Amino acid sequence: MRDPGRFERDVLAPIRAIVGDRGIITDADAKQPHLVAWRDNWTGAVPAVVMPADTAQMAAVVAICAATGTPIVPQGGNTGLTGASQPHADNSEIILSTSRMQKIRAIDLDNDTITVDAGCVLATIQQAAAEAGRLFPLSLGAEGSCQIGGNLSTNAGGVQALRYGTARGLVLGLEVVLPDGRIWDGLRGLRKDSAGYDLKQLFIGAEGTLGIITAATLRLLPQTPASATAFLAVPDPAHAVAWLRRARKNLGENITTFELMERRCLDIAMRHNSRIADPLATRYDWYILVELNAQGDEEALRQRLLTVLEAGIEADEVLDGTLAASAEQAAALWRIREGAPEGQRLEGASYKHDVSVPVSQVPRFIAEADAALAARFPGIRSFGFGHLGDGNIHYNPIQAEGGDFAEWQSYLPEVNRIVHDIVIGLGGSITAEHGVGRLRIAELAHYKSDLEMEMMARLKQCFDPQNIMNPGKLLQPELLARHKAR
Predict the structure, then answer these.
(1) CA-to-CA distance for 350 and 169, rounded, in angstroms?
(2) What is the pTM of this model?
(3) Can you give the residue ranges of the FAD-binding PCMH-type domain (predicted)?
């Protein structure tokens, strides 16, 4: 246990002198929103939440933490799904929040870039780009509250990754406060730069374990105001992949989103949200939600989608479907997809897997995982949905209806192992877009090769030899200790 008086004198008082009373929270009630995960059961405890106003303040605070050996938990909008931004419960860490760092520093329309502070909310960046006549395409369910620094720290994917890639591909430059308090200024808006290592990529997806992203220069793209949205029924995931192949051949980069969901997702979404209705008159086993975006005439885009849909029906790839005739109808179709995760949460114990496999292997993955879990856990309800276009499936089976919640929760480790063994066997990843955090830390070490884990541990040792930057996340402490001793 630390000495509270010494901690106040050596750590909190110097930090308060830097950030002011507005930049530090020690009141228990005011700290609470920063300590609790919004989806899972993590609840942490810290003596303070510190909110620097700019990069200089952030660097000065980190320097104090480095000098005193005080562990840091970087935190953005606290919308993560794996506990990466959650402190532990022993009061050993402080939270460093970017929530006051919200400036849009520059927009360069000739270079098609926007430079922003890490605390900028994703939706604010989208809006600023739109007002400048451009598009910033990263799009997530939490975009009204998540912050760009956290998005980059987890290499967020989202519903438009099929067309635009993940967050990693949208970044041209970063500014980062390193674990010793120095500032690395890598805010270059260059599309070509072969002068040595691409250092920014080390911090994207590192979940705050190598440094704190404080600003980013991001790519902007042309706006695509014309849109077309369809909700289609397909016989099974294999036919969905077949129609995706047809659609990509005929529609190319106009396909922005390609989502897959099974019937149970629709049923549960409707059960828990009265604003969701079945858009088709007949029940089917599997569905696709597809959205196109382009410049030019919207009716022509809808006609192109209709032509490919009709060809899919003739080839027995598609069974039925409806095209949105208005923005309101498109929003109603999207409510189905958005209502699936929320409805699932209300159905009892569920096993959340954010996995990816090659698109060609998605049907095999779902079939093998469904069969293996049904054989081991009779009554378990399959619940699969996600971004078929990029191979990222949220495979979240739910406990048997009427089953005991605690009993089904106890099956989590075995369910994870069954699902992840299949994923790895198909050349996939156990985390596609949510990151590792605390949730997958042991599984990462189980599935990654020893060499991969050693390389990551050595990077961590290089940048953060004291292990003060988000300790206990991504990499297991015993792994770091083992490589530190070498």
Answers:
(1) 32
(2) 0.95
(3) 42-223
- One-letter identity of residue 198: D
Q: How far apart are CA 167 and CA 165, in angstroms?
A: 7
Complete domains list, the chain, with CATH: 4-97 (3.30.43.10), 104-222 (3.30.465.10), 226-345 (3.30.70.2190), 354-425 (3.30.70.2740)
pLDDT one digit per residue (tens) for the chain, 486 residues? 568 889 999 999 999 999 999 999 999 999 999 999 876 678 899 999 999 999 999 999 999 999 999 999 999 999 999 999 999 999 999 999 999 999 999 999 999 999 999 999 999 999 999 999 999 999 998 999 999 999 999 999 999 999 999 999 999 999 999 999 999 999 999 999 999 999 999 999 999 999 999 999 999 999 999 999 999 999 999 999 999 999 999 999 999 999 999 999 999 999 999 999 999 999 999 999 999 999 999 999 999 999 999 999 999 999 999 999 999 999 999 999 999 998 998 999 999 999 999 999 999 999 999 999 999 999 999 999 999 999 999 999 999 999 999 999 999 999 999 999 999 999 999 999 999 999 999 999 999 999 999 999 999 999 999 999 999 999 998 888 887 755
Contact in structure between 415 and 351 (CB atoms under 8 Å): yes
